[in-house]
């Protein structure tokens, strides 16, 4: 009987539904056209999907947020010979 239940819960590649190693959440996001176009341009340049570009940008944003919240850390951007500290408020 347990095998029947396991077979019913199996989806796709033979993996039971409740054994998905990567949990995901769906969230509808409304953004201005110009912001979307910037992300689309990044995706086109990097030859990747728009959603993968959004995920990467979110990860960079989370890293930046953690750095900025730590009083012992600072975010410094170096471009060529110039250097500047980024302060987020």
Mean pLDDT: 81
Largest sheet, in brief, is: 2 strands, antiparallel
Overall, the morphology is: extended
What is the tally of beta strands?
A: 4
Percent strand equals 15-25%
**Which segments are poorly predicted (pLDDT under 50) over 5 or more consecutive residues?**
none
Quaternary structure annotation: single chain
Summed up:
The chain has 89 residues and is α+β, with helices and mostly antiparallel strands.
Give an account of the 3D structure.
This protein is an alpha+beta fold and 89 residues long. It has one domain. The chain is 46% helix and 16% strand. The chain contains 3 helices and 4 strands; from the N terminus they run αββααββ. It has a two-stranded antiparallel sheet with strand order 1-2. The chain has a two-stranded antiparallel ribbon with strand order 3-4. β1 and β2 form a beta hairpin. α2 packs across α3. The model has no long low-confidence stretch (mean pLDDT 81).
Itemize the secondary structure elements and their pairings.
Elements: H1 2-8, E1 10-11, E2 15-16, H2 33-46, H3 50-69, E3 75-79, E4 82-86
Antiparallel strand pairs: 1-2, 3-4
Helix pairs in contact: 2-3
Which short descriptors sum up this protein?
single chain; 89 residues; alpha+beta; two-stranded antiparallel ribbon; two-stranded antiparallel sheet; 3 helices; 46% helix; extended
């Amino acid at each position: 009987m347990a095998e029947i239940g396991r077979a019913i819960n199996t989806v796709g590649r033979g993996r039971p539904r409740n054994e998905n190693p990567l949990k995901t959440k769906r969230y509808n996001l409304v953004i201005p056209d110009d912001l979307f176009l910037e992300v689309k341009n990044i995706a086109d340049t990097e030859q990747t999907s728009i959603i993968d570009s959004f995920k990467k940008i979110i990860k960079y944003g989370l890293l930046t947020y953690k750095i900025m919240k730590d009083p012992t850390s600072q975010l410094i951007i170096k471009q060529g010979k110039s250097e500047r500290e980024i302060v987020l408020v």
